[in-house]
Amino acid sequence: MGDKLRSKVRKSPEASSVTGHELSKTPTTLLDRPNKNLAGIFACALLVFDAVLILFIIAYVPYTKIDWDAYMSQVSEFLNGERDYSNIEGDTGPLVYPAGFLYVYTAIQYITGGLVHPAQILFGALYIINLAIVFFIYIKTDVLPWWALTLLCLSKRVHSIFVLRLFNDCIATTLLHAALATLLYQKWWLGLIIFSLAVSIKMNVLLFAPSLLLLMLKAMDISGTIVALGGAAFVQILLGFPFLVSYPVAYVSGAFNLGRVFIHFWSVNFKFVPEPVFVSKAFAVSLLILHLGLLAIFAHKKWCKHEGGLVNVMHSVYISTVSRFPLQGLYAYGTTSKTLNEEHIVTTMFVGNFIGIICARSLHYQFYSWYFFSVPYLLWKTPFPTPLRIALFVAVEYCWNVYPSNNYSSGILVCIHLMILWGLWIAPPEYPYMDDKSPAKRKKR
Question: Which residue stretches belong to region Disordered (predicted)?
């Protein structure tokens, strides 16, 4: 069988671009082979299964009160006319989320009457909607074998975050995935507006921003990118308008505070770091430098490899901009110059966010929702054998379910993250564009 396959590759004129690595990854069984039709049917079955599981959890697992009362208190103060962000507080402290959070939880309070049980049902529906969007992204990119979609339904911690904690991370994550699904259809402006709405719920979504900016520069001209960014900024201004016209400094410093220091006890990733080091500015700056450095290296060596590197991409953007201005710059903005490969979009977004997760000074338990839904995708983008991928997935889930976290669980989690990042680094990058010369397109014919 192996000789026949190698013979076919030698005889096929289109197979000259297939590398030895790709040949070694050629699926040989139904379990290993990506199959969109089978994956779609299986995903629908998983949605039904998970919906039943959600109802079971709501009915029989006790709700844990953490932030819900604080959210409702903050909403009540907002509805009572308070517009000074420094005065809007709850049981857990002052409000630290952008204005979109207030509007969404005001609507939730109106629908549920501020009661936990109806809110759990609402968040259960949100979980299913989010999972359906994630399934769509996975099936669209066709990276995983159909059976591996099951992994997306197996997280005890994520189920808890959605229906037993009611965190705003769940809403931000769902909007982020909706934005990503929109980008797969090259709807960059709409995708960026939805992305901005996600940011208005919680700022962690900005971890995807460097990757998104790079993709937009590759797909659109510079003027289109600027206008799209302007649209996203307008969303933030519009949502924050009642606070910006009243107490602008309090709003900006409270809702977009990038210098917050989290409590060492709740850290899931760096619990092994001594507390004096953990809270130090030097540690924060070191992680920021590492974050920016990893983004730059991956952008240059992986995401822009087929264009000759990040510098060449930026130079092409500059040349394109200079050649269009001033005659065409005012009316030809926003045209899509190139159609990006769906897999390239998702990989760049997920890896960029994952780098941010690795370099985050503190990950609290609800922060698992920031990247859990990308973990199976990232694992299957590595060249690791399937048993190792599954083992790493189980290990990540285990670390997030150790409560409270300790030196060992946090150290193991960081090591696993670094191992996955190394696998992503050594994996061959996908061709970024959808055209007739694309190896990805030839492979799918």
Answer: 1-21
Distance, in Å, from the CA atom of 188 to the CA atom of 192, rounded to the nearest integer, reads: 6
φ, ψ of residue 403 to 5 degrees: the values are: -135, 130
pTM above 0.85, yes or no: yes
The token duo for 260 is 């917050």
Beta bridge partners of 340: 433
Phi/psi at 92 (nearest 5 deg)? -95, 5
pLDDT in tens, the chain (445 residues): 444 433 433 333 333 334 433 433 444 455 665 678 899 999 999 999 999 999 999 999 999 888 999 999 999 999 999 999 999 998 888 899 999 999 999 999 999 999 999 999 999 999 999 999 999 999 999 999 999 999 999 999 999 999 999 999 999 999 999 999 999 999 999 999 999 999 999 999 999 999 999 999 999 878 889 999 999 999 999 999 999 999 999 999 999 987 777 888 899 999 999 999 999 999 999 999 999 999 999 999 999 999 898 988 887 877 776 666 554 444 444 445 689 999 999 999 999 999 999 999 999 999 999 999 999 999 999 999 999 999 999 999 999 999 999 999 999 999 999 999 999 999 999 999 986 444 444 344 3
DSSP state of 93: E
DSSP 220: B
Long-range pairs of 287-296 with CB within 8 A, sequence gap ≥ 24: 287/359, 287/360, 287/361, 288/359, 290/359, 291/355, 291/356, 291/359, 294/355, 294/358, 294/359, 294/421, 295/210, 295/352, 295/355
14-36 burial string, b = 16+ CB within 10 Å, else e?
eeeeeeeeeeeeeeeeeeeebbe
